[in-house]
């Protein structure tokens, strides 16, 4: 039995060493916080390790890992101690400096804008354009129809465009 388990452990360690950084990056895009992304990745790999001997089709492990990560992210967002509450009235002007849009800072601006997109739509956008999955694959991961993925993609892109426009206007002082 130990030889059987050792073979599974070696396969899992090999998979982890190849995919951990990519899954952590995907988690960061989902949540926007490196510490939470580390937690999500750890929980995902723990769940994956526990299911490893039962996974028969090793060609779909990446898709399964993304699905576990997404569900873990959505579950974390539902937990009451993770909920944030505003400390200032909604109409209060907060002293926040918007990132400037220049060269290498474009990536940070995109991340900030992505955090303003609703979480389900953000997940669809990340799976479609970051993980480069097809509409059908995203639908299977999310457990919805391809039509839902298409509409969520369209709405998510609209929200992302609006958020990018707001960030751009705030960094240029309202000038276009």
TrEMBL record:
Taxonomic superkingdom: Bacteria
Keywords: DNA-binding, Sigma factor, Transcription, Transcription regulation
RNA polymerase sigma factor 70 region 4 type domain residues: 108-158
Domain RNA polymerase sigma-70 region: 21-82
Gene3D superfamilies: 1.10.1740.10, Winged helix-like DNA-binding domain superfamily/Winged helix DNA-binding domain
Keyword Transcription: yes
PANTHER family associated with the record: ECF RNA POLYMERASE SIGMA FACTOR SIGM, RNA POLYMERASE ECF-TYPE SIGMA FACTO
NCBIfam families: SigE-fam_strep, sigma70-ECF
Protein family membership: Belongs to the sigma-70 factor family. ECF subfamily.
Protein name from the UniProt record: SigE family RNA polymerase sigma factor
Organism the protein comes from: Paractinoplanes globisporus
